């Protein structure tokens, strides 16, 4: 045992060293271990020198310990007796029964006595026993058979609920273990009670007998009874009876046979039949080295048909779809209905070109109107394509690849087809980890906002700032938005991130306004965030919470956000416009905007995407596109701002073609709040100096003289 510090009363040392339990003595004031016995060193596999002087919180760091020692620090002296876990020096986790008691001393705050007993082995035994019992009970209840277990004398030892269900036995008879009443009930339930009792007696008199017979019940059902002896240590100790309803089994077999290979609604092969055919196609493809394709076809917005026209019309649509899909393929190919409005097409001996032809025939077949009674409407579909063997080595893998490709089509706007683009499993795992890290980062406040200045091309004045999210992870370091934003959009976490950015940007704009800096702040809004039903109210709440004038907030929306559901987008934007919030179309030129929509949307600004600015002024194509966007913006009375401006030549070109504003590295990258304020002051000073210089130049410029040429006589 290591000697205790000088201030410690060493009289306790022989006492604790004689105990079989592991014991620490902890100073009540410092919470440091002042003495340990040999048993504690053996418990944790640590020498006394590593224990004495250590903080007790570092040795026992569960939430329960943390709360206890926090209470102890403020003078509470209640004891603690619980089971907890501790880490051994070799990394193993130990279950210990732990008691903490306060020991008063004449001087000082006294000591805490921490006594621990290793319960790991006992806990493991208990858990194994509980697991075994739970498994036995789960097995008993999970079987489709009624189970009855008796001892050698016929007394009931165990049963499952299926037994009571099959025989209709009242629950109280079984729970009360009223053996005679249970047996009498079963005897009365069969057609020949006397024969039943005689046979049961013969079975009980032969402990080693294996039997199987049928029992005809009064209600017409037939139960199969199987009886086996129960053994323990080489001798019979009881008997297990199992009862099965044969009529139910036959009916189930018939139903399974009907459903095993065909879809009941459309008559098409079902998933099981498709998987079997894909397996066969794989075997043929390997032998003949010929590829094949698997298409996943999912109807677009099919729920609207069920909701508006009813399920009967929905079923008629599914039958018609099945017919059209069959007509669009060859006889050797297979159309299957997987589930709901999801179908699969197996295209034999088809490479990428053949699969594309099949997908186009499907799109063409679905483009024809559906006409039922007096109704006429269109149903489109999204199709994902997987090729064997590149997109999967099994039927399940191929179908999963085709389904992923179909979902990418859905996310991209529907009514199209797309080939599967393989992703490595390690990449998927990395995205899962990144998604989890993002969620932790929001809780741990690891995100922050930077602000990029927006500058007037005419005056050089700062006219606003774009709020851009940044993330510094403790392990990854700085994670670029281009890496984590796509993952957030895919997982849906972009909604929470977007809400955080909105709140922080509004708060910062309000803080600047109180300091006398009137800086409009632009915030990017994702498609998923914009589609949230409470989005407009969230914007309004943020403005109210920080008392920010709505004109100092600009929401940047992409073209895809506006065109996905134009009417809904227009309604939402009108509500935002009524709040007084400004709106801009971000990355303009990269989507498929309609001038008709642009006229209707209450927007104030177009932002030219950096991909068009990068080639200025030398790239004629980029120059033409930028000039066209500027002229269109001016024609619609919209402000036009270019992003990604990095050179004087780019800025000068934009100024000549009439662009109003710019942002980019030429002025400044996205800056932290204090750096942005400093750059704001610099830009303001430069703008004032420029204005003064222009005014002085104008004043010194001589008046234009008229020159008269006199002709000689």
TrEMBL record:
It comes from the Bacteria. CDD domains: EAL, GGDEF, PAS. PROSITE patterns: EAL, GGDEF, PAS. Transmembrane segments: none annotated. Residues 290-422 form the GGDEF domain. Residues 431-684 form the EAL domain. Coiled coil: none annotated. Pfam families: EAL, GGDEF, PAS_8, PAS_9. Residues 15-65, 132-178 form the PAS domain. This is Diguanylate cyclase.
């Amino acid at each position: 045992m290591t000697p205790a510090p000088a201030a410690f009363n060493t009289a306790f040392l022989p006492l604790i060293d004689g105990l079989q339990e592991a014991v620490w003595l902890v100073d009540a004031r410092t919470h440091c271990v002042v003495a340990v016995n040999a048993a504690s060193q053996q418990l944790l596999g640590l020498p006394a020198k590593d224990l004495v002087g250590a903080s007790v919180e570092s040795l026992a760091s569960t939430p329960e310990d943390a709360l206890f020692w926090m209470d102890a620090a403020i003078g509470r002296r209640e004891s603690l007796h619980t089971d907890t876990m501790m880490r051994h020096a070799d990394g193993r986790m130990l279950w210990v029964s732990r008691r903490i008691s306060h020991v008063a001393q004449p001087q000082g705050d006294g000591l805490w006595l921490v006594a621990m007993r290793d319960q790991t082995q006992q806990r493991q035994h208990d858990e194994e026993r509980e697991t075994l019992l739970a498994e036995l009970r789960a097995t008993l209840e999970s079987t489709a058979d009624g189970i009855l277990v008796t001892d050698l004398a016929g007394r009931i030892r165990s049963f499952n609920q299926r037994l009571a269900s099959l025989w209709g036995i009242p629950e109280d008879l079984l729970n009360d273990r009223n053996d005679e009443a249970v047996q009498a009930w079963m005897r009365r339930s069969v057609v020949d009670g006397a024969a039943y009792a005689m046979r049961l007696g013969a079975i009980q008199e032969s402990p080693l007998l294996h039997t199987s017979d049928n029992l005809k019940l009064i209600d017409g059902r037939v139960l199969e009874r199987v009886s086996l002896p129960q053994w323990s240590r080489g001798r019979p100790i009881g008997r297990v009876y199992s009862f099965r309803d044969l009529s139910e089994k036959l009916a189930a077999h018939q139903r399974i046979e009907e459903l095993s290979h065909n879809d009941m609604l459309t008559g098409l092969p079902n998933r099981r039949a498709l998987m079997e055919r894909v397996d066969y196609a794989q075997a043929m493809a390997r032998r003949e080295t010929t590829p094949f394709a698997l298409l996943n076809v999912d109807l677009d917005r099919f729920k609207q048909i069920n909701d508006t026209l009813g399920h009967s019309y929905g079923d008629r649509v599914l039958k018609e779809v099945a017919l059209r899909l069959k007509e669009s393929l060859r006889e050797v190919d297979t159309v299957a209905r997987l589930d709901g409005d999801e179908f699969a097409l197996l295209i034999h001996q088809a490479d990428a070109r053949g699969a594309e032809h099949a997908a186009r025939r499907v799109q063409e077949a679905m483009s024809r109107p559906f006409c039922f009674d007096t109704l006429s409407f269109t149903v489109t579909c999204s199709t994902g394509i997987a090729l064997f063997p590149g997109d999967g080595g099994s039927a399940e893998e191929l179908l999963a690849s085709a389904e992923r490709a179909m979902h990418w089509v859905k996310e991209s706007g529907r009514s199209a087809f797309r080939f599967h683009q393989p992703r490595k499993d390690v990449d998927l795992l990395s995205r899962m980890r990144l998604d989890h890290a993002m969620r932790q980062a929001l809780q741990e406040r690891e995100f922050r906002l930077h602000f990029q200045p927006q500058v007037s091309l005419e005056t050089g004045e700062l006219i606003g700032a774009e709020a851009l999210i940044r993330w510094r992870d403790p392990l990854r370091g700085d994670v670029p938005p281009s890496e984590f934003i796509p993952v957030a959009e895919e997982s849906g976490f972009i909604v929470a991130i977007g809400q955080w950015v909105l709140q922080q940007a509004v708060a910062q704009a309000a803080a600047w306004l109180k300091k006398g800096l009137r800086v409009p702040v632009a915030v990017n809004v994702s498609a998923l965030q914009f589609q949230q039903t409470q989005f407009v109210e969230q914007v309004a709440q943020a403005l109210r919470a920080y008392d920010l004038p709505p004109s100092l907030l600009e929401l940047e929306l992409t073209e895809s956000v506006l065109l996905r559901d134009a009417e809904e987008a227009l309604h939402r934007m009108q509500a935002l416009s009524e709040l007084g919030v400004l709106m801009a179309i971000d990355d303009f030129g990269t989507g498929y905007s309609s001038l008709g929509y642009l006229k209707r949307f209450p927007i104030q600004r177009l932002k030219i995407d950096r991909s068009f600015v990068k080639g200025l002024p030398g790239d004629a194509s980029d120059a033409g596109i930028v000039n066209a966007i500027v002229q269109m913006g001016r024609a619609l009375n919209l402000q036009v701002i270019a992003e990604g401006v990095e050179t004087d030549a780019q800025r000068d070109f934009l100024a000549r073609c009439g662009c109003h504003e710019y942002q980019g590295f030429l002025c400044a990258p996205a800056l932290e709040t204090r750096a942005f304020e400093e750059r704001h002051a610099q830009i303001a000073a430069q703008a004032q100096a420029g204005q003064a210089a222009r005014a002085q130049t104008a004043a010194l410029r001589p008046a234009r003289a008229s020159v008269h040429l006199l002709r000689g006589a």
